Each structure stands twice: as C-alpha cells, then as structure tokens.
Amino acid sequence: MGSHGIADRVAIVSMGCTAFREHWDRSTDDLAIDATLEALAPLDLRPADVDAWWLGTAQSGMSGITLAAPLKLEGVPVTRVENYCATGSEALRQACYAVASGAYDVAAAVGVEKVKDSGYQGLNAFPIPTDGTQRSLTAAAMFSLVAPAYAERYGIDPAELRRTLARIASKNHANGARNPRAQFRREIDVDAICAMPEVAGMLSVFDCAGVADGAAAAVVVRAEDAHRYTDRPIFVKALSTVAGNGAGLLDPDYDYTHFPECEWAAADAYAQAGVTDPRRQLAMAEVHDCFTPTELVLMEDLGFSERGEAWRDCEAGVFDLTGELPVNTDGGLKSFGHPVGASGLRMLFECWLQLRGEAPEDRRIATADRGLALTHNLGGYPGEMVSFVGIWGSELG
Amino acid sequence: MSGESMRGIVGASAYVPHWSLDRSEITAVLGSGRGRGRRSVASFDEDPLTLAVAAGRLALSGLDGSGRSGVNPIRSLTFATTAPVYLEKSSAPIVHAALALSDSTATIDVGPGLRSAAASLRGAFHSTDPVVAVLAGDVRIGLAGSTDELGGGDAGSAIIVGDATVAPVLAEYVASASVTQEFLDRWRVPGEVRVRAWEERFGQLRYDELATSAWERAIVSAGVDSADVARVAVSSPNQRAGQALTKQLAAAGVSVADRRDDTVGFTGAAHPGLLLAELIEQAEPGELVALVALADGADVTILRRTDVPCTGATVADQVEATMPVSYGRYLTWRGLLAAQPPNRPEPARMSATAAERRAEWKYGFVGSRDRTTGAVHLPPARVSFRGGAVDDMDAEPMAGRRANVATYTVDSLAYSPSPPVIFAVCDFEGGGRLPVELTDVSASEVSIGMEVEMTFRRVSTADGIANYFWKARPVPGTGGVS
Questions:
Q1: Which pLDDT tens digit goes with each residue over B128-138?
Q2: In a designed cystine with B129, which of A36, A394, B75, B206 is the match (CB 3.0 to 4.6 A)?
Q3: Fold of A11-117+213-230
C-alpha cells in the first residue's frame, strides 16, 4: 500500500481557458465548447479525436451528457465529477490517471461553471434533504473564523493582520490587472481595502473571491507521446487529493489556524515529485485564495512559510510577482472569480503559460527556469474540506 | 392532605425572553397612546412552543429523575397556547422531544382558548398520573398600538404537578373552584392579528362577579377564611378585571401580587403559570397562596407553600436581565413590518424522515461519546474521529452542558430573518465541539472564551414547516463572561 503518483508518465499538451466574466450572453454549453475548442485547435484535433473525457462541474449540469450533448460526442465515455470547489482539479486528476493506466491515448479534462444564472450573489449549493440541523453560514463567514484565531495564536494585533490580508488582496488584484482573462482588472491599494465595511467577521467584499462564469480545458496524453503534439509539453509531477473527515468541526483541539487536509495533500505531492524545499524549488504557485485568510494560511500549509511567519512573508513581498516565490500570478480567484468546475483548470492554465514562457511580459515570472509549478485547489470550509495539490514540470526527470 | 398522600407542585418556572420593548417606543413611533413600562419580547427565533420548552427545562432542572432516566415519572404533558404553530398537527410532541421525556408520556395540546392553561392546571391536580407537566407559551401580538400589543407580553411557563412520593413538593394543593359563564368579551378570527373586544366595562363587570363567586367557593372548599391567604395573584387579559375582588382581599390583609403588567405584560396562556411560579418563589414556608385565572370563566387554586427550596432562575431574576429591543426590530421579528432580507436563497424545508431518524439529536440535543477514547461527537456518529472505533458509543445528553466560545464571526451575508448571523465555534465542558449560531446576543458582546448555554429555537420555517434546533446563548446573569 502507498501513494506512488504518476510522475513523468503523463503530459499536458494543450490548454484552453475562456475569459472569466459575468457571461450573461454565454450558456454552460457555450463556455464548455469555447474552452474545449481553444484547447484542441493548436493540435489540429477535433472532439472526435479525444478518446475519453472528464467534465468538472459542481452545479451547472448532471452527468457526462452535460458535455457530450453540446460537443455532439459519439460513442465515447464522458464522466462528470464533483468535489466541491476542487471540482476542476478532480476532473484533471481523473483524466491523467486514465491516460497513465494505458486505457486511453488522448483524454481531455474540461471544467465549466455557469454561476450567474442563479439570480443570487455568491455561490449557492443545491439543497440536499436534511434533518434541518445544519448551519447556514456563508463561506465568507466560515473562512473569516481563521483571522481572529490566527491573530490570537501568534499574538498579532488584529489591525495589523487586517493590513496583511489587504496586502494579499492587493497583490492578487495587481496581478489580475495584467491578465486579459481576469474578471477584475483594476489595482486596489491596501488602504482602500482596509476602509471597506466588514461583511463577515473582519472580511470585506474585497477579501472575497469574485463570482464569475468560465471554463477551461486540458488535453492529456502519455509523456512519451507528448512531443508528437507540442514542443513544450508540461509533465505531471504529482497529483494529490485529500477529503477531510470533518473532525475539525468535532474536535476541540482544532484551532482554525491551519488546514490539515492541505498539509496532507502537500506532503503527499512533494513526496511524489521529490520536492524538499518548495519555496526555492518551485517557480510559482497558483493557490485557492477564495478568501484572503485562506491564502495566508496556505503559505504555511504548503510549506512556503514557517508556522506563524506567513503574515511577515506576505508583508515582505515574498509572494509578489517579483518576489522569491510568486503566488497567484494570474490574479487568483480574487481577480478571476470562482466558477467552481473551472477554477482548478484555470490555475493550471497559468502554470502552462508561465512554464512555457508564454505569459505576457508584464506578468511574466523571473523564476520560470526552476521548471516546477504548483496548483492548489480546495473545497469546503475550515474543519471540513477537500484539498488538491498538483505539481507540474517543464522537463522530464 | 399531608405526608404520603400529599399532591402539589413539584416544579414551577416561567421563562421570560431576553428582550423587552419599552412601551414609550411604541407611542413615540405612532404618536399616540399611553406608553408605560415595558413588555417582554420573544426573539425572532422563538415561538410559543420554544418558550414552553425553555420554561419546562427550568422547571425540570431542579427535579431529580426528571424524565432523562429510564424510569420517567412524567406520565402526561399538556401544552397550552393561543397561537399554535400548526393546526391539525400537535405541538406537544415537539415539546416532549425537546425535553427528552420518555416515549410512554402522553401528550395533550390544549387551546387556542385562553382558558386552556388554567383548565389544564386544574386537570393536573385531579389527575391520577403521578406526575403531570403543565406547559404553556404565548407570543402576544396585536395591531400596532393596540391594547394587545401594548399590554401583551411573551413568555413560557411550566408547572409540574406530582405526588410527594415522587418528588419533593414546593406547594401543596389545598383546593380549587371553577365558575363558567358564557359571554362575549374578546375574540380573534383564526389567521388574524387583530383581537376584537366588546366594550371593556362589560367584561370587567362579568369577571368581577365570576372572580368573587369562584373565590368564595374555593375558600369554603379549602376550609379557610380569606384572611388566612397570604397572597393572591390575578391573571386576566382585561387589566381591570378582578379588581373588585383584590380590593376586598387587600382590605382583609391579603397581599396582592404584581400582575407584571409594567414589566412583562399579559402573556396569554403562559400567564397563570408565570404568576403561580412567582407566587411560589416569593412565598414563605407554610403560607397559603392563591391564583385567580380569569378567562371565559374563573378558576381559583389555593396552595400551601412548603419549606422545600425553589431552584433555577426566578421570574424576577429574568425580568431584571432583559435587554431592550427597538420597536422597528420588534415589528420585523413578528412579521408585522416586512424588512428586506439579504439576497440569498431562503432555507429549504427540512426532511421529515431525516428529522425523525435524528430526533434525539435534533430535538433532545443528545450526542454520542466514544467508549474507548471518550471523544464526544456532535452530532452522534457511528465511527469515532479519534481512533476510528465503530458502533461503540454511548448516548451523551448535551442540552444542559455549558460551552465556551473558541472563535466566532458575524455574518452579514447569510440569510436570516434578523441579520447579521452571529456564529461561534463552541467547545463544551466535558468534551465536544459544535460550530453553532448564537442568539440573544449582540455582535459587540461576543468574545473568545465567553460562556454559553444551549437553547431550543425555531431556526427556520419553510413550506409551513417550523424547523427546530438548538442555538447557544450567553449564560444569563453572568454577562456571558466565564
């Protein structure tokens, strides 16, 4: 028994990603078609050339037919997957395993979410019949629980932590301003964010991911076949997913200053990829900044900062575009919004651009020659979450 | 009656909600009327049923073997209200479930007539059941500025009647008398907020006659003189009714109890129990006390206080601890002023089958404890989060357990009839954690480490289904600080 990974056995050979927007004029079908065709076009492939499909969507459709019908796929397997907000990464993970197993030559992972048809702000889950005892808090409020707990544990003045969180948002908006696919493209300074009214704990709307529609897609083949499709494939170094058991909601020992599911997924992924010093070995990371305290804590859970030090590292600019380890160089969920099924693949899309040197100059990282990038995608809440970590490399071995 | 054959009240408590409305706020908004004193106000998540449960928990807290043990002495439970949550469906089984009573307890809904509370109390004294729980709750509303809105109050009451062989008696039953006469005084059409009334003088005169008549019969039955009674309390929807009797009794040296008009208001079906609980709380051992309940007739009960001490929060304690609520907020809580909710989906209705499977958790707040590691699970679980033991847990009743706030947040985005939602991760004394909504609290009062207790509330309503569960609130009288 053991987690062995599939390092260097599978490659991504093409990707597509729509702009993330309030796409009032685009349907789930339109977005899925656009992202898929964008990914297939450079390869001169048609949908019929793909052997198997994985569709990630949390709430925009049920079953593989959600993708098979708009693309008019014939006689091929399409599997719809859902794993909370890590849904896009889950679709990608399944496609990679399918190719690694030898079952298929060419697989595609497509993530799509049409959020803005609900009529409400924010993300809203399908109601599952329950005994009526479940809490009904927003995700913003659940993640806001982290801020006072973190401040208390490390003796940080809440006003100082407020500025640190604002700096995280400001950094991601600065990156997003340089990305034509991002929903929000305006830079916002720390003082302006700190002046916003609180909506959940100490968080304002500027501490929360936006809400957008979008889709992204990746084409997956065996590593040995990769150069038949592109000169610059990126290779799967690690794939790890952990589904939490909710113990943090039951166990008084859990203190809301870290996410064990993310620590476990990171440890597993680093072991698969042979990464021992992520802060220096990784060229960049795309992490799940659904709320600013989430990104803060992730810097520690992913091993980029020592425990209790992430707030200092954030202040020191370690994770800025020009910093020691650039994080969320595309603008993150903060600038992109969070079409649930698409986000994990959107993160990979940025790694794809940066590792291949295709990111626009004004947001191109200086660390690309390190050759490794990380995507981190989570779903759920502190105490009860699923977490994905993927590591991607521009070279084999 | 004495010794082995003695029957009386073995538990008596009222529950007065956390909030109160200064009546001058009503007159300030409406620009007319008289506003004196204040009235009690049920929170947005309370209803007649939860008010009765809260009173029942107070009354039962002093009783050993109150029904949580295998041998449950409570054989029947009545629940009275003039504003039932449901028609067709009974409410008393929900009260019964929230009090975690035995399944062999009979439950009886009474109402919606105002006299139902006094009638069920009378029935309890004459019952052959060893212990009877008489619960009542009411949320009193009326049109803006009406006598019912100004003079009404919200409360629950619980009177536990039993034999001395079962539990120590606080007040021995001595005698009772009832007089019935049909006349039209007050009436409300189902579904309407407005209570209609005949000319007040007519009701007052009728009640004066009925009260005096019932009183004379009761003291004859008790074999005492009026002057032997130390204190009398009169419960009536008509503030002047019964004054002829109380003037006469005062002249004979009988103390007349505060009807709580200026501090609580008339609490409908809960009021006879509330006044009775306070009579018992304030009486000296050996004193005779009497309750006169006026509603479509007159019911007089005479009791003798014993030397068994009362336990739990008194009416006076609770009245003292109330916090003010604005008239605007009061009106939105009662649904009399429609306020804009957050633009979020409203809660879905609960599943009847899921709720039934989880009834002990949902209504009784019973978790489970891992026999190997002692880890407490809220809600109860089959597999332990610590050590993974399977199907090896004991039921762990948690409703009476206090907790401390580990961390908290204020959510202005979540759907709530009274935003913002204040929410805390609560760690319980003796183990166990639950992230749960706080109530009876303002955002500025919450702090890490604050001590809270559990309270049974109506957490949402959808498709006409009232969905009940527990919330946490600061421990009254402690300021919530442990």
A1: 999 999 999 99
A2: B75
A3: Peroxisomal Thiolase; Chain A, domain 1 (3.40.47)
